[in-house]
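WARN no homologs supplied; continuing
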Amino acid sequence: MNAELLARFHGVIPAGGVGTRLWPLSRAAAPKFLHDLTGSGSTLIRATYERLIPLAGGNIMVVTGRAHRTAVIAQLPEVSDLDLVLEPEPKDSAAAIGLAAAILYRRNPETIMGSFAADQVIRPVEVFQEAVLEAIHTAATGKIVTIGIRPTLPSTAFGYIRAGERLDISGAPTARDVVEFVEKPDGDTARRYLADGGYLWNAGMFVAPVSLMLKHLERSEPELYAGLTEIAAAWETPARDETMDRIWPNLPKTAIDYAVAEPAAAAGDVAVIPGVFDWDDVGDFAAIGRLNPASEETGVTVIGDVKRVYSDNATGVVVTDSKRVIALIGIHDVVVVDTPDALLVTTKEHAQSVKNTVDTLKKNGVMDVL
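OK structure emitted
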């Protein structure tokens, strides 16, 4: 890898989203990226940071909510104050990633940024890092690059990337053109995509010259671009907080896919590197069962410090954050999440529906457990 090229690379970690399908473990005050969901002893955000260190060194910026400042600093004490971007309120990914790009552009217009969400599980790390290196080489030719995940099943939970012709780029043998981004499909369409072989899951990973990101943002979202540029201009001055508080609440709320990726793909400015590593966005409690093998002794996957779980002819996932004894008898594919003030009991099959419960609790004003 060209050392000069790698010196231009900065990692960005957007750490937002509560992960409502992981309630009651994940909540507004303790979102999923602050939990160890893989039994590795490392939270998801710490694991994300460590994946990027060999590529970016100390050049890593984190974008998160003000409410998570203390918890994020405890997880990532190496991140400097100027590299910790605290959102006064959630504004979706275009504002978060766009502001990181605008700040980095002011520091060095030649920067190539790589944005990777804080709440994904990726193995093996070395294969991921090889894909990012290919993406950096490709971005240096003037492309916004996404790392698409090879689909392993016809999922309706993700958007897809339609890959096109192979690109001839030194240092990026697997780079391909992106024909289009497509929305989350229905079941039949997802099966067709899987059979076609030319479609990849959109995991929201972007590697791009900050100048190109901002060019497309200005073109498609001029109001958002203007606000972010003003905040970035004040970022390393005493006016930082005042400027953020004045501008941020009025910024348009939109996803980076709509604001940048899709219009850039239509303009022929997007490439994709197929990711051949294992990837999981830990979207629900069934994912925790996939990521953590069940105990041979009990047949149950148990996550938590206090593991007082007993089973008799039972299978499933138990996440415990209390001292209670949990006994499972003659029940299969169950999900039990036990916290001091809320208990969830469902099945792996219905794990995606937890979000509906959170919505109902919110509607009924039961906010103390959210």
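The chain has a mean pLDDT of 93.
OK
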